[in-house]
Amino acid sequence: MSDADKISVEKGPSGTDTPVSSGVMQELHAAENDFEVFKRSDDLVDFRTVSWIRASLIYMKTIFALGVLSIPLACAQIGAAPAAILVVAFGGLATYHAIVLGNFRNNHPRCHSMADMAGVVGGPILREFVGGMFVIFWVLGTGIGISGSTVAFNALSNHATCTVWWGFIAAVVVIALGSVRKYQHISWVTTLGFASVFTGVFIVVIGVTTTDRPAAAPQEGPFELGYYAVAPSVSFSTGMSATLTIFASTGGSSAFLPVISEMKRPKDYPKAVYLCMAIVNAAYLAFSLVVYRWCGTWVASPSLGSAGETLKKVSFGVALAGLLITPGLSLHGAAKYLFVRIMRNSPHFQTNTVTHWAVWLSCTIGLGIVSFIIYEAVPIFNYLLTLTSAICCAPLAIVFPVVFWMYDHKSWRTGGDGQNVLKMAWYYTMIVIGIVGMYICVAGTYVVVVQINDAYRDGTITGAFTCADNSSS
């Protein structure tokens, strides 16, 4: 029996909780406290209050907005069939690796994030490296969310003020949302956020199917829709950019881990993952292919602008809450890691003291400011998304989960105790998957950096901290 099994409350034959004495309950809490990062005690703030349904909603909101805003453009770049294959493949891989991370966490006590897991495998140096990458990834993710929110503000206001000001307003709201201390409390707004983005995208899907031609296409005379099952000619740069865009849509599984430490029953984590990924991947596939089928090469980025000005305003207005909540969750995840890293062994860790709140708010406000600066430096939504996917998402979502799995399955290299050929084959398959992840990281970073450099040179990006609407490009 694993440690995770030992800490769970026993169930009776009917599935109800079996009554236990106070002494047994104290022993259970003691076992939990040995295993978990956040302790349970009458003298401490209880962070472990998230149900698995709430956890699943947090996961959905963390990853859902990016895909529906960006995958239709990836479809236009490489065609419907390759895009659909990549959505299914990356979605399945992300689901499997999310479970791998959860299993590793439950095999090694007191792991709060991937950084702690890296510490188990490679010691303090690897722990700090992965921790830094985790923070960078979710700070960049926060910048992406600020970018999407700024596009919405510009659309709703008819560009009533400088884009920098809209970005600043979005950043302030995001910092406020991210500063909510517990996942349980922030989870209450994730339901609203997921529903708002889902409804906003659904409005666009209906809108594009009821018009004679895409809103961005010539409104008179013949035109080429540009819909292809497989795009006729795709350059390496374009193909890699589309791959990174689709990969990033489900590559945020590293954010799932800190939530486990705040779940009532960490053993319910797989249920939360399966529910989240089933809904999100089905929505990605359906929404993206429909928008691409009706818009072709005239699809907008972000995709909520694909159905014309009126529906653009309606969809952005409906989805605005979700577009702000997503970066709030990203910021919260990065700040929570940093907070735990700084305060874990402090008496202020789970207490309502001035020191506790000062450190927590310093983490959220500081990282929020960095996110805003990054957004202004790379203000085009799609470039910022693909850059994030290449630099951090590939290592965190593919390479390191493979490393962790191999650490816990060393015996599979030779087939295990029974010399099982299937185990051996899977071991070497995981190595191949890890190599693919490293290739996506290196090649993707090179491609995106070249694209951003070209965009600055040809004027697509007009400059940092300017009022030009770069974000909607």
From TrEMBL:
The chain crosses the membrane at residues 58-79, 85-104, 125-146, 158-179, 186-207, 227-260, 272-294, 314-334, 354-374, 380-404, 425-449. This is Transmembrane amino acid transporter protein-domain-containing protein. It is found in: Membrane. It comes from the Eukaryota. Pfam families: Aa_trans (PF01490). It is a multi-pass membrane protein. Residues 49-446 form the Amino acid transporter transmembrane domain. Residues 1-22 are annotated as: Disordered. PANTHER family: AMINO ACID TRANSPORTER (PTHR22950), AMINO ACID TRANSPORTER (EUROFUNG) (PTHR22950:SF697). Keywords: Membrane, Transmembrane, Transmembrane helix. The keyword Membrane applies. InterPro entries: AA_transpt_TM (IPR013057). Belongs to the amino acid/polyamine transporter 2 family. Signal peptide: none annotated. Its main location: membrane. The keyword Transmembrane helix applies.
